[in-house]
Amino acid sequence: MLRSSWLQRAAGFLAAEYLRLVWRTNKFSFDPPEVYEIVEPQQPAIFAFWHGQHFMTPFIKTKESHRGKVLISQHRDGEYNAIAAEWLGIGTIRGSGDHGSAFHRKGGVGAFKEMVRALEDNYNIALTADVPKRSRVAGLGIIMLARESGRPIMPFAMATSRFVRLHNWDRTTINLPFGRGALVGGDMIMVPPDADAETMEKLRLRIETHLNEATRLAYAAVGRPEAALG
Fold it and tell me: How confident is the model over 214-226, as pLDDT tens digits?
């Protein structure tokens, strides 16, 4: 029954409309205040965020000119996320951003090529930076995408003051309505086309640091500084 297409579409629609309610009933602040003025001239860009902190990320798109696609896994649970994203006006690319041993099996090669093509076609790309099953440890996949495409990476975090946090590997946060919200962007990161392994590792750590700092600042902005560590 969980694989029924009508049930998946219904669940995806309900999830999308719930998230829209959360977005509309939380008063969001932006750090820096001119974050859109900084990013827009550098589009298309690669937007990086932590797994489990992803539910509000479709709402970084505030204009029709903000064309975007998000990488979503091919796992059954990913189907619900894909349907919800599409209801919210975000295109989807199915596959894995991980460049580990299961990269080919998870559709990673095809997804990587599709992301490069989307960036060439002026679509922004959004994807989680974590290594699968290792929360808040950035992988090299996003670095490789930036190196191949020549597009900048924008690490960012979104948080709300009211939420429920699950006790799973990525500490999934389910945002709740009627509170405060914050979007915090880190510095744009460029990856040189000739970046070697040492340079890529330094940039991977830099993304990890920026994402952790953005997460810390976002939760502090909504009055929940303790939640950044949860």
Answer: 999 999 999 999 9
